[in-house]
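Hey team,

Filing this mostly as a record. A colleague (T.K.) asked me to run one chain through the structure pipeline before their review meeting, and I want the input and output archived in the tracker in case anyone asks later how it was produced. No errors, nothing strange. Just documentation.

Input sequence:
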Amino acid sequence: MKLLIALETSEHDDSVAAPTVALARSSGAEVVLLNVINPLVDGADVVAASRAEALKTVHADRVAYLQHYATHFQPEARTRVEELEHGEDVPSCIARVAEDEQADILAIATNRASGVRGLILGSVAQHLMRISPCPILVIRVE
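Output structure:
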């Protein structure tokens, strides 16, 4: 079994890691930790000689971030940092990686967008439920 865990570099990631570590250990799953970079936004705060250099810095930081979580899994999880392709949104990128990795299950956190925000914007988890090539474990965080 292959478990793909999408982490967003936020305080919610700890909430996703604990139950997925237990799932991976009990099932013997191969684990891939994923983080998605939005090249239009994520390098904006990085001081660098060029946009490409800023994105390299962001990429390296995200790999290091995922490596922190990778050590919680036995054997250690593999990490993957993916940039959005032109015109792609985060849920589509996650679904693309899930298909590419041939994931059996995808884990993601949600803080459950509600009210007008939820109606207008939706959420990554909601969008993924419509397009994912595999079942999704949605972990609700507060």
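Quick notes for T.K.: The chain has one domain: 2-140. Residues 2-140 form a domain with the Rossmann fold fold (CATH 3.40.50.620).
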